[in-house]
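Incident log, entry 3
Record: Type II secretion system protein N (253 residues)
Problem: checksum mismatch between cached and fresh output.
Input:
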Amino acid sequence: MKRGLLFSLVGIGAFLFFLIAKTPASLIPTLAPEHEQLSLQATSGTIWNGRIGQIQAGPMRLGPAEWNLRASRLLLGRLDADINLEIERGNVDARIVMRPGGRIEIPEATGLSIPLAPFAPVFNQAADSIHGEAGFQARDLVLLGDTLQQGEVDLRVFDLVLNLMGRHELGNFTGHANGQSAEFEVNFSDVGDDGPFRVQGNIDYRAEERRYELEARIGAREHAPANLAGALQYLGEQDEGGLYPVRFGGRVF
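Fresh output:
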């Protein structure tokens, strides 16, 4: 009896492997949960090893993306894949685990040389309003549906440039995000002395509402352009360290 059960399980496993290996990746858009802001285009390969030519996520265009399923995890009832996503000249490597009930886990992810311009529309800004590159390392991310529930991220931004009422080279920045229960705190600051400003602050982000509140302090360095340094006085009173308060909030797409 036990031997017969073992043979049955092996047979079922072999059938599942064969089915996934032969199922075309073009079925993924029909299998993915419907979301008006998500579009998967130009799929090729198989569900086991495939490629998506372009991902439209709200106002952002990403891709291509390639993935490989981890065969050993299928017998445990989960989809576990290694994914590479290109964002223009940058890329993201991640491991993604999909569990029953719509829970998505990303145990680890790394991003390198990611251009910032494609993300400007997320904050309702034109793509040419921001330039620079970013890199990150993420750990233990969890999503339910399309809402980020928890995780930790270390972020670096290099050569940030804003084109808002003129071109402003702002330098390099670092940040750390950590959160639970869909509420996150992001701490950030400038790095080095190249940028025109000293900056330090934090962002509170409520993922379910997609709203953020930023509170920071900013001060001009000696080599800051006079027009930028002079504009800071309209932010309020300086503190003892010569920094001005900055507070604002908004909603991401």
